[in-house]
């Protein structure tokens, strides 16, 4: 299936038509054509900046498909390094200082009467090795989405898990379901029930919800028949995996079934702007100072006499040329809102991006009389992983590291967790392949828990009893985000007796790494190591040798391993060990 899109519980394929719109006029013409078309399903999106587009990015993009079938995907998630696994790195996270500064300005706008509610949003930037299929499978296991969406083009890739209906059109009957009001789920049924009732009866959340219902009533009045509007079950509570949200469905009959008129009247949805809409949107533009893009726009499907659109919240968007996904998250701020509560809501709405898993980060290091070998790189690696994976950073690690491996004092770091001061890094290990390797000393294991607790243990290094390696029949998966970090989840791989290490290939038959070492091959008198993208932990000694120009990265396979003049298993604990199959 070369080109397909997903919306709701259906997957659409067999592309026959396409509309790419760069301004509102082109979008209106496209809507007119799509409404007239028969036997096609048009799936696509509209960006939040439909009326104010200043970029070369389309304001709307729809693809017309012939086929529609039920979408099914395995959404069971169990971690293994031998399978893809979505656990994104946060390149840019939520910034409390910036948020609190904007929050104060929002309160000033509310106090001046310029707005009654401002839906202020922030943006995260995420990186993952996982494919879109794996991301969908992973996140569906954490948040079932009635309005699941997937769309890919030369301009962007969109993966949406929105729970919010924008509008549903059937003939001249139209339904809206604005979502406003959020509270976390409980730990058991009793807590769930209590929190659900709290949300339903909370004055702040009820006020937010009512404001948006009134705003939508006003917007809808331009296009619906007088007297046809009904508000069905106001403050209806829907249950998601990690939170409860309140919706208030509105139903009415249209004067005419005209999608352009509908978008003119109600877009963007009031639940993601605030009230009054136009004045509040101007405030949002000034404070957010960025494009929202697909986030808070519309995503959906148009067919003959029918249409259904979500408000694309809980949505990942990756634009052409970007390696990261954008993820927007926001909340409605009213006069009695509190900064810490609103920021906590953003954290809650972002929490589904990662599974709840218990694991630690660790470093295994060589300690000798003169210090710890490549200490600078070990500390830099664990700190980098901690930041990317959302671990709490203890103050002992939250320092600036130098790029080289020159001597540094560590009394403010190691001393806190071990009671020993004065560790320094060992000098460069430049002649690693000339027969020199670290000898003697002991093993030091530095461990960091998710809540920021450091621990340090020391043990004797076990002697090497074999230089034999074997090739595992199991394949590592380069789309596993945690494979690239040194976590306690790596413990599932064991080494059989009589072997120094076991080497692994990935799902593409590329050579990756050993259980406890990186791989270096002497091929045609060049020292080559598998490229990082093949799937491995970037070892500290490997990094040092790459930076020194002693080894080079390359795509290597099983044939290269068999043809190698020499095979080395390298790590910072034992140096370079010459091994054989």
Low-confidence stretches: 401-438
CATH structural fold name of the largest domain? Anthranilate synthase
Work out the strand percent.
Answer: 25-35%
The named CATH superfamily of the largest domain? Anthranilate synthase
**Rg from alpha-carbon coordinates:** 28 Å
Rough outline:
elongated
The end-to-end distance, rounded to whole angstroms, is 42 Å
Query: What is the share of helical residues?
Result: 10-25%
**Average pLDDT reading:** 87
Largest sheet: 17 strands, antiparallel
| Total number of domains | 2
Q: What is the number of helices?
A: 12
Query: What is the class of the largest domain in the CATH system?
Result: Alpha Beta
Gross CATH architecture of the largest domain: 4-Layer Sandwich
Quick take:
One of its GO terms (biological process) is L-tryptophan biosynthetic process. One of its GO terms (molecular function) is 4-amino-4-deoxychorismate lyase activity. This protein is of the alpha+beta class.
């Amino acid at each position: 299936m070369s080109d397909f899109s997903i919306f709701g519980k259906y997957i659409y394929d067999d592309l026959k038509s396409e509309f790419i719109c760069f301004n509102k006029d082109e979008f209106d013409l496209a809507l007119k054509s799509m409404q007239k078309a028969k036997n096609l399903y048009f799936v696509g999106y509209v960006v939040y900046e439909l009326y104010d587009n200043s970029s070369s990015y389309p304001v709307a993009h729809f693809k017309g498909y012939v086929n529609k079938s039920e979408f099914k995907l395995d959404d069971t998630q169990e971690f293994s390094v031998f399978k893809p696994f979505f656990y994104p790195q946060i390149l840019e996270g939520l910034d409390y200082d910036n948020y609190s500064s904007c929050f104060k300005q929002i309160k000033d706008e509310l106090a001046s009467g310029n707005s009654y509610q401002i839906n202020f949003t922030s943006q995260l930037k995420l990186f993952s090795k996982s494919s879109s299929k794996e991301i969908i499978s992973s996140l569906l296991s954490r948040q079932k989405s009635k309005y699941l969406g997937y769309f890919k083009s030369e301009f962007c890739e969109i993966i949406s898990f929105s729970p919010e209906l924008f509008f549903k059109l059937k003939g001249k009957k139209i339904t809206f379901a604005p979502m406003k009001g959020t509270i976390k789920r409980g730990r058991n049924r009793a807590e769930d029930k209590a929190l659900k009732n709290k949300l339903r009866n909370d004055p702040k959340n009820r006020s937010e919800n009512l404001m948006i219902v009134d705003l939508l009533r006003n917007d809808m009045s331009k296009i619906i028949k007088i007297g046809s509007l009904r508000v069905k079950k106001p403050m209806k509570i829907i249950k998601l995996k990690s939170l409860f949200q309140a919706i208030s469905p509105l139903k009415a009959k249209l004067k005419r079934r005209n999608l352009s008129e509908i978008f003119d009247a109600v877009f963007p949805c009031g639940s993601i702007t605030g009230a009054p809409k136009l004045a509040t949107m101007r405030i949002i533009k000034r404070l957010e100072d960025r494009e929202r893009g697909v986030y808070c726009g519309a995503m959906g499907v148009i067919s003959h006499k029918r249409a259904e659109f979500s408000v694309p919240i809980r949505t990942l968007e990756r634009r052409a040329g970007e390696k990261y996904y954008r993820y927007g998250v926001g909340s409605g701020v009213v006069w009695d809102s509190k900064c810490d509560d609103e920021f906590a809501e953003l954290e809650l709405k972002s929490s589904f991006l990662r599974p709840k898993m218990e694991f630690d980060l660790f470093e295994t290091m060589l300690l000798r009389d003169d210090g710890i070998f490549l200490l600078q790189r070990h500390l830099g690696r664990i700190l980098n992983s901690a930041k990317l994976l959302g671990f709490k950073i203890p103050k002992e690690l939250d320092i600036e590291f130098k790029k080289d491996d020159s001597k540094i004092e560590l009394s403010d770091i190691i001393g806190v967790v071990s009671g020993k001061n004065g560790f320094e890094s060992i000098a460069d290990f430049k002649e690693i392949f000339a027969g020199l390797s670290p000898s003697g000393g002991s093993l030091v294991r530095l461990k960091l828990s998710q809540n920021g607790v450091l621990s340090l243990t020391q043990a004797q290094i076990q002697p090497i009893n074999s230089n034999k390696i074997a090739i595992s029949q199991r394949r590592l998966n380069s789309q596993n985000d945690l494979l690239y970090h040194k976590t306690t989840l790596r413990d599932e791989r064991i080494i059989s007796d009589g072997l120094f290490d076991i080497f692994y290939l990935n799902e593409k038959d590329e050579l990756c790494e050993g259980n406890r070492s990186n791989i270096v091959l002497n091929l045609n008198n060049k020292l080559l190591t598998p490229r990082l993208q093949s799937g491995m932990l970037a070892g500290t000694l490997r990094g040092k040798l790459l930076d020194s120009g002693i080894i080079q990265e390359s795509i290597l396979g099983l044939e290269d391993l068999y043809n190698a003049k020499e095979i080395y298993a390298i790590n910072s604990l034992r140096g370079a060990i010459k091994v054989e199959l």
